[in-house]
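Predict the holo structure. Ligand: zinc ion.
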Amino acid sequence: MIGQKPALNATSDTSEHTEVSGEVSNDVSETVVDEAPEEVTDGSLDQDRLWMSHAMRLAERAEAQGEVPVGAVLIKDNTLIGEGWNQPISHHDPSAHAEIMALRAAGQALENYRLPDTTLYVTLEPCAMCAGAMLHARVTRVVFGAFDPKTGAAGSVYNTLQDDNNLHKLEVQGGVLAEQCSEQLRAFFRRRRKNK
Ligand SMILES: [Zn+2]
């Protein structure tokens, strides 16, 4: 997986969701919204969509493991250097969010705790913990899909990534494949309610 380039025909296959049963205790908001605050016209958008599609496929792995479906990838020079998906329940680890897992994988791959000149793609707006980890890692840019009005720390509730007190600030692009990312989460919560 490391060093992987994005497939040009990357699409999100959401047709094979595993039905989730059992107790899922995760504090990811159920009220994700998919409205981007402004029209996205950046030239890197196609690339952003490709990597976000990859993050959505990783989110499916989380769901297959009974976790809330969130996926993340870390990219450097348009090459994948780390990927992760949400797995706090199975790891008995409250910090095992998709972004943290991707940062850990990239740190191991590059043998460096600093990860400059990278872009992190994640299907849901990062929480304060993950935003803090991205600051420590010196990630350059974060691109997220669905907005999280309850716990989002990339502008929705907190603006951790761009706080004026920060020594380091990240570029932030929200709302890439927002509708698809939101629907992936909403479908998960719908199924979970049905299975209760
Ligand atoms: Zn998080």
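The pocket of zinc ion is lined by residues 97, 99, 126-127, 129-130 (CB under 6 Å). Residues 44-195 form a domain with the Cytidine Deaminase; domain 2 fold (CATH 3.40.140.10).
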